[in-house]
Amino acid sequence: MAKVILQNVYKIYPGNVMAVRDANLEIEDQEFVVLVGPSGCGKSTTLRMVAGLEEISRGQIYIDGRKVNDVPPKDRDIAMVFQNYALYPHMSVYKNMAFGLKLRKFPKAEIDQRVREAADILGIRELLERKPKELSGGQRQRVAVGRAIVRKPKAFLFDEPLSNLDAKMRVQMRTEISKLHTRLGATMLYVTHDQVEAMTMGDRIVVMKDGIIQQVATPLELYDQPANQFVAGFIGSPPMNFFNGSVVQQNGATWFKEGTFDLCLDERAAAKVAGYVGQQVVFGVRPEDIQDARRATDHDPGHRIRATIEVVEPMGAEIFVYLNTGRNTFIARLGAHDEAAVDQQIELVINLQKAHFFDAGSGEVLV
Ligand code: ADP
User: Residue 116 belongs to what H/E stretch?
Assistant: First the structure.
């Protein structure tokens, strides 16, 4: 297995479409790295440059210490699993899995051993004689993964491999691929637009937007310490709430004033916005860091928001409450047994320990 390095990588398509801009990334040996971002942000292009399916416009890519810019895909010793599986319809599962090895002139016995071993790992041994059309979506996906495993490549690349599966199968395959990663000890680079998939599978996550890497971090770091407002809003469901407002110094304290509510900032929060007194900032707080004031132990009136409930969504273990301050809408995750009715006025407590502030212009986090 191998380390994969991207150094100042650009992809410029004809017509001056800058699909990837100055990407720098080191994927460690045996690491599972997920590229995530909205559609069109450059994830697939990045992956396809690593695979060699797309030329690199500028920069370098190294796999296992070798610069591969000009190495054709078949000689990069990597295996790619596609969203549409790309199985040969007229070949059996066995032949689909064996095909790549046969092309590379592996001895028959070795091919047989590798195919059966991969089939066992994936639990598809009884399907080896079937044709792709006789398989379910999940089974086809396993065959596509199997075809990658038999090659024993230096790295695995996955391009939205679960997008064509139904929700339940997606969750199941998600855990299977994670287990496979552990079992094979393989370097894996995985592309998805689904932040839940990214959070649950990745050792580290690369968040992209408009061709630019926004942040590279572990799932928890991304969640707790987003580098900017985009990452903060992209990771987490329901997403982080944002409020525009101004920073004001008053009565010896620092306040965030939204217009309908004023928050008295503690020392830590005040330090973050110290350079922004008299200016606009964006205040961010996650839905789980807002509590029903009736249950709160924090009685500081400077930590409270009054809002009107617009929608209540019971989720079983909790409720999602959609609120309106009169100026901004936001979401709180309250306890399943908290009382919440539409049109009711409610008082909420903000956990300022978990508050985030962003530059209103650049969106960069204030630290
Ligand atoms: P993602 O995988 O994040 O959805 P892509 O990497 O497929 O995004 O695309 C990134 C950007 O590059 C998009 O704006 C897309 O329209 C553009 N793009 C992708 N492929 C081509 C191509 N062959 N020619 C021109 N533009 C392309």
Answer: helix 108-122
Structure tokens, 94 = 């066995």
Residue 309, C-beta contacts closer than 8 angstroms, at least 6 positions apart: 321, 322, 323, 340, 341, 342, 343, 344, 345, 346
Ligand 1 pocket test: pick from 6, 17, 197 the residue with the most ligand atoms within 8 Å of its Cβ. Answer: 17
DSSP states of 177-217 as a string?
A: HHHHHHHHT-EEEEEES-HHHHHHH-SEEEEEETTEEEEEE
Average of per-residue pLDDT values in the chain: 94
Q: Is 38 in the pocket of ligand 1 (CB under 6 A)?
A: no
Confirm if 326 and 260 have CB atoms less than 8 A apart: yes
| Closest-lying ligand 1 atom to the alpha carbon of residue 211 | 10
Which pLDDT tens digit goes with each residue over 45-67? 999 999 999 999 999 999 999 99
Query: Contact at 8 Å (CB) between 62 and 56?
Result: no
Asked if 68 and 76 touch (Cβ cutoff 8 Å), the reply is yes
Q: From the CA of 60, how far away is ligand 1's center (Å)?
A: 20
The DSSP call for residue 234 is H
Confidence of residue 79 (pLDDT cuts 50, 70, 90): very high
